[in-house]
Design goal:
Radius of gyration: 23 Å
Distance between the termini: 21 Å
Structural class: alpha/beta
Number of helices: 20
Helix content: 25-40%
Oligomer: single chain
CATH topology of the largest domain: Rossmann fold
Strand order of the largest sheet: 14-13-12-15-16-17
Strand content: 15-25%
Amino acid sequence: MVASEMHPFAKTGGLADVVGALPRALATLGHTVDVVLPRYRGVAAGETASPLAVRLGAVMVETMTSEVADGPTRVILVDHPPSFDREFLYGPSSGDYEDNAARFALLARAALAWAARQGQRYDVVHGHDWQAGLVPVLLATEHADDVQLGHLPTVFTIHNLAYQGIFDASWAERLGLHPRALGTDAMEYWGRLSFLKGGIAFSRVITTVSPRYAAEIQTPEFGFGFEGVLTGRADDLVGILNGIDYDQWNPAVDPYLPKPFDAARLDDKAASKRALLVAAGLSPTQDALARPLVGIVSRLVAQKGFDLLATLGDDLGALDATFVVLGRGEAAFETFWRDLAAAHPDRVAVRIGFDEGLAHLIEGGADIFLMPSRFEPCGLNQMYSLRYGTVPVVRATGGLYDTVEPYNPATGSGNGFVFEDYTAEALVRTLRHALRIYRESSAWRRLQLAGMTRDCSWEASAREYVRVYERAAGGRTGA
């Protein structure tokens, strides 16, 4: 595998969780996985280093590679400080680094050079998101006749189509790309280059992270201009729902919770609610403990529904609920939550930034988890919430649609609350409905238990990936 993130080495979002968990799940099925990723600033793992020369256009770049074991997985860190020893993975909040094309072309070339040096032929090469989009391109073009790398089966996963790795066409020469990589049926995209399009065009099988999202990205609403490209590869596009790491996300053994709990000890979840109120700077009075607590852990961006929430300041403040928010993102949304917390200091708390322990405590201590996303390729937090008996309130999109079953008061079935229309009115109406059902203790307990007993593990997903790998090994390259 080639990826730009992997937990616990580097993380900005769900990509890192997937790349961290999927290889371990594959290992339990008897497969051996090597993962190549950059050595970013602060990554100290890896004791041995060996030099690796990589060509970028007319320039030879000297890199180092270090190997480290992450359980049964071998992780190879590409060490090139000018490219990767930076404050941010992709760029500051003001925008991406201008040389990201070179940085991740270096990753792709280094990954393949390292693989060729191993003296073994891999069964499949799996690239993740646009940062690894050059991997299938290079394999199908300049490495097509290599003894070790030629005609290797390739799988490419789109974790979020909104990020497309689009660069000026001048990068083609600067990176030394093969002419076959540059046509309209390859990397060219409206006069520019797209690493994402290259990954799609040259991979045998394309996957994305939920069945619903696989269908959505073939439509103008969710395709971000790539719907035609993806429709053209529809027969090779597979949606596989992500799993979650049951070792890392397990309320029965979670070290960040003050008291373990599970479906048989659900009353012990109350200790986490009290601890969360204290950690958020809210007083754990009897009224506060009785009041439903709504948790949010998210990037504070419009994609995640924060444009809707920002129009609901007065309505949110008037709800009989407490809000605890953790995340960072667009300045306007950060300011909105700070202002709402200042106006309702006993009901709203916000922590700008990321804190792994607080994220676990929110999942464990909240009663409701809110994810009103405009689009959500898969989503992991709703699955963490189900596992922790924290009832999700979500919009019916992507993986949220595939994992959260709407509550049906007639039958008592369901594990959460879902709204269809992307409007503030639909969001607040559904949230109010959830708050009303919270007062019905037996119905709420059924919702919690339905979520906690749903299988969100990686095992089933890993088996689907194995089928995809087998399919790729018997298939043909796209472009």
